[in-house]
Amino acid sequence: MASALPRLVPARLRRDMRARIEYIVRSALAEPLGNLEARLEAVAGAIAEIQPQLNDLVASLDALEKTTAQIPPQVIAAQGALAGPVGEVQPKLEDLRGATMQIRERVDQVYAAVGSIFDGIPELRSQLLAARVNADYAAAFQETHPLISVRVATYNRGDILFDRTIPSVLGQTYDKFELIIVGDGCDDDTAERVARLGDARIEFVDMPLRGIYPDDPRHRWMVAGSPAMNLGAQLAKGTWIAPIDDDDEFSPDHLEVLLATALAGRFEVVYGKMLAFSREAADAVEVGQYPPSHGSWGLQAAMYMTAIRFFEYDTRSWVLEEPGDWNLCRRMLEAGVRFGFADRIVTRIYPHGVRAS
Q1: 337 in a domain, yes or no?
Q2: Which of 75, 239, 268, 341 could bridge 290 with an S-S bond, Cβ 3.0-4.6 Å?
């Protein structure tokens, strides 16, 4: 038992006991006792004082040994047997981690290579430089009251489109605009409802076939509506294009604020903040910052020159794990398009099916 004491008793407890014994013994020896016998009796009394604690400690050690003895030999044997294989597996796990990191790096390289093929940045940059020397480009910054083309792509969302999106466009403080609505192969009554509005500023064009999109829901979300969005930009007659989704809404001064920002800074793309609603959160959050970044950018809060509408949505952006809006923005940035930012909310965006309170 004595050999087990240092191993089983915590070091702090051993130190405390030793210090207490030494203190009691020193105190006893320091008293002016007349003879050695009296001193020995004092030491014996000090030892007797701590004897109950020693007895309790010995009892605890006995109980611990009994508990340890009850551990099945099979468990102890299994622990010993596992020690070797675990030691052999550990280096293999480290090798696997290293191989995984190499694979991730390789995947990133593949994404970069595929992206460079899809993006065509050198060609876009050449088109941008050519646009900048065109007479229409220079004239765009001289027009203080230009026509702005608002573009909406839609697919069978008549209720929200006519209850929310279209009214937000018609209620703009800026009055010189056209509204181009492009159906992505609609088979509801969107065309009839546009005709009933009887507003010459609104044009509806329906694509003969629905766009071809990935089967995966997430990838489909990334690019759905891209062909209709591109067609809407090509049909634009205005100097500037202001995109909006068919379930979102402009702030009343959306066009006015973005146009003023573009003209003041001679920017080719201008954008503001979005107030984003969700099904999960009770309160909406502000989204948007400068410079643009993935996750804080949406074309619904932007306006760009018609002169650079050769920048189009890419229906293959899902291959790069990029939503269409961000993919378009990133290619513009990499090609050298000049971006301006209005630090205020210009758009309210909603998940599909959520209505404003």
Answers
A1: yes
A2: 341
